[in-house]
Amino acid sequence: MNHQQAYRVQRLILIIALMLILFGDTGMNAVFSFSHQPQSIWFYPQLVIALMTAAGPNLLLMALGAYQLRRAALPVSQLIRRVLWIMGGITLFSLAFYLEDLVTQGSLTSFNIAGFFTALAQAPVGFYDILYELLGFFVTLPLLRVTAHHASVAIQQYLFWAELVFIGMVPILAYFTGLTTISVNPPLAITAGCFFALMGYWLSQTEVLHRITREHLLVAWLLTCGCYAVMVSVTMYQVNLEKNFDLISSQPFAQTFQAIPCLTLWVTIATWMMNRPRSKAVRRHNFVQTGYGDMLVAGLLITPFMVINRLLTPIIGAWWSGWLWSIAVLIVSVELVWLLRHVRWLQRILPDLFGGSQLIGGSVNAQKN
Description:
- This protein is mainly alpha-helical.
- The protein contains 17 helices and no strands.
- Helix 4 runs parallel beside helix 14.
């Protein structure tokens, strides 16, 4: 895979991941607005899309692992600085979000440290949490690099099946059997921050992608349909059993069988890009460079841009207006990050974590450590 192909895989995966994350954060205003309308013909298609939004962070981690585990290893001192700058960025934007929330409520004078610490941990709820997964990735990066470069095919297959069993099957079996008192902590290597990053690296190798056939992709997509069928079935069983449609928005089983769909989408996009004829050169300033910064800035724009949802809901419905809301937030976030990255010290808070700068030229496979 050359640098142009690798860039386009990263770009498309990032666009899909960020859109799923943003749309998933619209909550009852859009993505879950259907949840109390089971008689609607669009109920189940929208339920499937709602479950798909849980795959956004996983795809983001795959893109992160595909680049960071392939590039040359950072010195320990530089890695520590990277972690500290990421922590600083999360803290700064959490503070901005907290102040934005106070201004919106007209209670700026009630600012206090305890309230800020709450915002630091959860702001915006369910959105900046994703950044903590990225932070966890960099904390464990030296260990992940060793695993990524030295794991045999048998170990890779073992991790896949371990994730499928412990993250996918065990929670569902525990629910149906009532054995909720049994708690099996998943190994570090199959948690989202590690598993999907490793899979992103392994599935970006040219020799692996060359072995993928159309028959493999067909089987993978059939399994993907099966995974979502299981998640929909279990979710609706719980909803009907407890007669509580609010359970849909809590998505208790949304992460159980996300591995196969995420890996299938990645391989499909990667093989498609590899089979495309040579395309235009990658621009020096590109979308991939802004991927991480887009998430920080988007967290501040979600609430102000809610006006789009309010204006369009009476016209096209809450669900469709939620998509336009998310698209607008992403576009403006990209433009703002491009502007902010012209300031030198902001480049450290809004770093290029996905390889937009390094994928401008050169061979991807040549960047192995």
